């Protein structure tokens, strides 16, 4: 009996000890500022243009985009060269946006760019009338490219075209990232004007799409769509997950206000 009591007591003590050990919070790690340093690799318009996005390659060189369509590479020593230039539609904030490096770059040399192809979009600002707006309906494009051995762009493969209304401002964006499974994620801005051409605040137009019970609200036009992007669940910019070879984004059912921030996931291989 004495031995049994000792065994039970020892087991209970072990359980208590284990519980205390497991409940203890993880110790915070000190961040040493000396572990970080800022090194200027490229600067000024000749080396960076109107900079938009960057991505680091396995050799520690950096790819960076400029809105006018120029993709540059700066190596670890700070030498910058042009990798390629895409023709782009560049009204207001549109043009070349994001750049991403494929997780398998060491073997496939794939990179991804998000940009506004020229198409046949008229120059200048778009009209306020919906009847005259169709010519400004375009796309922003996610494409895969291969970098040659001498650091030049080649072999474009279109992955996804994102519908976009052109000739307006603002909040254009396009960032590319990958998860641990190799899925590519694309996030965008709403590419919308928060005010009317006469300066009417966004809140005046917001009820048009989201609160139909407010008939006194000003009618939103094609160029006043930021009001419709907040909290909207019926938009053409819903999430997608697919492989690049077959990627497409079906239109959602029901009425579709023009845009909202969104993310797309595709297989990178």
UniProtKB/TrEMBL annotation:
The keyword Signal applies. Residues 50-196 form the Glucose/Sorbosone dehydrogenase domain. Residues 188-222 have a biased composition (Polar residues). It comes from the Bacteria. Keywords: Signal. This is Glucose/Sorbosone dehydrogenase domain-containing protein. The lineage of its organism: Bacteria, Bacillati, Actinomycetota, Actinomycetes, Micromonosporales. Gene3D superfamilies: TolB, C-terminal domain. Residues 1-28 form the signal peptide. Pfam families: GSDH. Residues 188-269 are annotated as: Disordered.
């Amino acid at each position: 009996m004495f031995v049994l009591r000792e065994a039970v007591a020892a087991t209970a003590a072990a359980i208590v000890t284990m519980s205390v050990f497991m409940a203890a919070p993880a110790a915070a790690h000190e961040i040493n500022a000396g572990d970080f340093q800022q090194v200027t690799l490229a600067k000024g318009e000749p080396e960076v243009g109107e900079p938009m996005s960057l991505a680091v390659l396995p050799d520690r060189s950096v790819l960076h985009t400029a809105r006018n369509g120029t993709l540059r590479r700066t190596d670890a020593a700070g030498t910058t060269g042009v990798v390629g230039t895409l023709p782009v539609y560049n009204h207001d904030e549109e043009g070349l946006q994001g750049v991403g490096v494929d997780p398998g770059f060491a073997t496939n040399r794939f990179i991804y760019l998000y940009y506004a192809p020229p198409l046949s979009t008229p120059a200048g600002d778009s009209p306020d009338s919906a009847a005259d707006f169709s010519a400004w309906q375009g796309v922003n494009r996610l494409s895969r490219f291969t970098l040659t051995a001498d650091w030049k762009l080649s072999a474009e493969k279109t992955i996804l075209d994102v519908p976009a209304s052109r000739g307006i401002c603002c909040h254009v964006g396009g960032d590319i990232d990958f998860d641990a499974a190799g899925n590519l994620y694309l996030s965008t801005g709403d590419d919308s004007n928060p005010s009317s051409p006469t300066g009417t605040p966004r809140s005046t137009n917001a009820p048009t799409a989201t609160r139909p019970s407010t008939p006194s609200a000003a009618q939103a036009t094609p160029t006043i769509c930021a009001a419709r992007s907040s909290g909207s669940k019926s938009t053409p910019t819903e999430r997608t997950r697919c492989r690049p070879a077959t990627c497409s984004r079906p239109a959602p059912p029901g009425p579709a206000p023009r845009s909202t921030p969104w993310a797309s996931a595709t297989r990178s291989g």
